[in-house]
Write a structure and sequence with these properties.
The protein has about 220 residues and is α+β, with helices and mostly antiparallel strands. The chain has a domain of about 150 residues: CAP (Pathogenesis-related Protein p14a, 3-Layer(aba) Sandwich). The chain has four helices and ten strands; from the N terminus they run αββαββββαββββα. Strands 3-4-5-6-10-9-8-7 form an eight-stranded antiparallel beta sheet, with helices on one face. The longest helix is centred in the N-terminal third of the chain and has 30 residues. The chain starts with a helix and ends in a 39-residue tail after the last helix.
Length: about 220
C-alpha cells in the first residue's frame, strides 16, 4: 500500500512540474516583443475591413484615385499624410500608408522612433533594404500575406514611415497569392488573358479508332 501511495504522489508531483514548466514557457513567450492584431490597422480600422467601415473611421477623403498594384485594382483614399487603399474586387481595406509626423501606433511608435524601440515593441522581424532605407517587416499571425513595414533611416535608424498592407510586396508574392487563393485574388489580372480560364469541351470531337493489328501478308 505504501508503494502505491508513493507512486501516486510521485506521478502527481511530476504532473505539477510539467504544468508549471508549460505555464512558465507560455508566460515567457507572451512577454517577448511581438506583433498583435492591432498592429495591422490604424485607429481601430484593420486590414480586411469594408470600405464603409473605413469611411466611418476616417471620414470623407481629401480626394481619391484609382491605381493598379501588381494587377490588383485599388481605390486610394488620401487623407493628408495618410493613404488608405481598398481593393476593387473585394471592397475591403488592403493597404494603409502613414507618413508625416503626426501618426501614433501602439506603445507610442511614431515618426522618429528608434530602432531599439521598434525592436522592443515588435521584436526583430525581417529587414530589407528599400531605396536606400531599412525596412523592418512583420507578418500578421494567421495571415500569410499581410505585413507591417516600418521604414527607417539607414544611418540613424529612426522611423520614417509605416505601411500596413495585404498587397503583394513583389512579383513573386503576387504569384504566390494566386496559388494560395487569397481574398483579393479576384483583383489580379491574368498574365495571359488570351488563355481560357475553363477547360475546352472536347465531347463533340470524333473519337479516334484504335489501330488494329493485321496478321499475314496481303492477299
Amino acid at each position: 500500500m505504501n508503494i502505491l501511495l508513493k507512486k501516486i504522489a510521485f506521478a502527481a508531483f511530476f504532473l505539477c512540474m510539467v504544468l508549471a514548466g508549460q505555464t512558465a514557457c507560455e508566460a515567457e513567450t507572451a512577454d517577448k516583443p511581438h506583433v498583435v492584431d492591432e498592429d495591422f490597422g490604424y485607429k481601430g480600422m484593420l486590414l480586411g475591413d469594408s470600405a464603409e467601415d473605413m469611411l466611418k473611421v476616417m471620414g470623407e477623403a481629401d480626394y481619391d484615385r484609382k491605381e493598379s498594384v501588381f494587377g490588383i485594382q485599388v481605390q486610394r483614399y488620401e487623407y493628408g499624410d495618410i493613404t488608405v487603399s481598398v481593393a476593387a474586387a473585394s471592397n475591403r481595406v488592403v493597404d494603409i500608408e502613414l507618413k508625416g509626423k503626426d501618426f501614433r501606433l501602439r506603445e507610442d511608435i511614431r515618426y522618429g522612433s528608434t530602432k531599439y524601440w521598434i525592436h522592443h515593441v515588435y521584436g526583430m522581424g525581417e529587414t530589407q533594404l528599400l531605396e536606400g532605407d531599412i525596412c523592418h517587416i512583420y507578418e500578421r499571425p494567421g495571415h500569410r500575406h499581410e505585413h507591417l513595414l516600418l521604414r527607417t533611416d539607414a544611418e540613424s535608424g529612426a522611423l520614417i514611415s509605416v505601411k500596413i498592407t495585404a498587397l503583394p510586396l513583389n512579383e513573386a508574392e503576387a504569384e504566390q497569392m494566386i496559388i494560395d487563393g487569397t481574398d483579393i485574388e479576384a483583383g489580379l489580372v491574368a498574365e495571359n488573358p488570351a488563355l481560357p480560364e475553363t477547360p475546352i469541351d472536347t465531347s463533340a470531337l470524333p473519337v479516334p479508332e484504335e489501330p488494329k493489328l493485321v496478321l499475314g501478308g496481303a492477299g
